[in-house]
Design brief:
The chain is an all-alpha fold. It folds into 2 domains: 10-58, Homeodomain-like (Arc Repressor Mutant, subunit A, Orthogonal Bundle), CATH 1.10.10.60; 61-202, Tetracycline Repressor, domain 2, CATH 1.10.357.10. It is built from 9 helices and no strands. Helix 2 crosses helix 3 (51-57) and helix 4 packs across helix 6.
Length: 217
């Protein structure tokens, strides 16, 4: 009489591997249904684990979502660091950073909504790690602006902090209709418009027409 095959046993993962799996599945579900509809029991089902296992590694569903958002910001910062070594010139670097700020929203609208609508309005937001990551992200644009002023490419009569706020204010204005599901926006056109307004308004000399929009997105 033939022997029945032994039951399949799910590979045992290390704690770090399990955490990575849970976060990856959660991120996939975020793109499918939005953060409001994430249910930890469904995350557990997709991972093939018990819901209790999720709470072994994450204090709550919110904690899980925050960790996913932090991972996302770390990825954005890593990409920016790579491009910083290949993109030269103030104008092109500024456009690249604005373009990337817009492109990540299109790629991850659910995570963007979670950060803007849930985390940023939290009274404890400034004490969160994701706030520090966001400051590093916005600080990259401040660094480019500061360099432009220091080298004399930009005038020094407008505070860099105000220029930074103007840039991110424009970015948010562009993305809100999209995030509400009420419209769309062009990453390229918005990046061109925002970076051109800032550069043309602050440049100490009139930029040459052929230098405009030379960065390939």
């Amino acid at each position: 009489m033939p022997h029945s095959p032994p039951p399949r046993v799910r590979n045992r993962l290390s704690p770090d591997e399990r955490i990575s799996e849970i976060m990856a599945i959660t991120r996939q579900m975020l793109s499918e249904k939005g953060y409001e509809k994430i249910i930890t029991s469904e995350v557990a089902d997709r991972c093939g684990i018990s819901e209790a296992t999720i709470y072994k590694y994450f204090a709550s569903k919110r904690d899980l979502l925050v960790r996913v958002a932090e991972q996302w910001f770390e990825e954005i910062l890593a990409v920016d660091d790579q491009h910083a070594t290949t993109t030269k010139g103030i104008r092109d670097r500024l456009r690249r950073l604005v373009w990337e700020s817009l492109a990540v929203v299109r790629k991850e609208p659910s995570l963007t909504r979670f950060v803007l609508m849930e985390l940023r309005s939290d009274p404890s937001y400034r004490s969160m790690h994701i706030y520090t990551l966001n400051r590093k992200f916005t600080g990259k644009i401040s660094a480019v602006l500061n360099q432009a002023v220091k080298t004399g490419e930009f005038r020094n009569d407008v505070p860099v902090s105000l220029l930074r706020d103007m840039i991110f204010g424009c970015i948010e204005h562009q993305i809100w209709t999209f995030l509400r599901g009420e419209g769309d926006f062009s990453v390229d056109l918005a990046a061109d418009g925002i970076s051109n307004v800032i550069y043309r308004g602050m440049a100490t000399t009139r930029p040459a027409p052929e230098s405009q929009n030379q960065v390939s997105a």
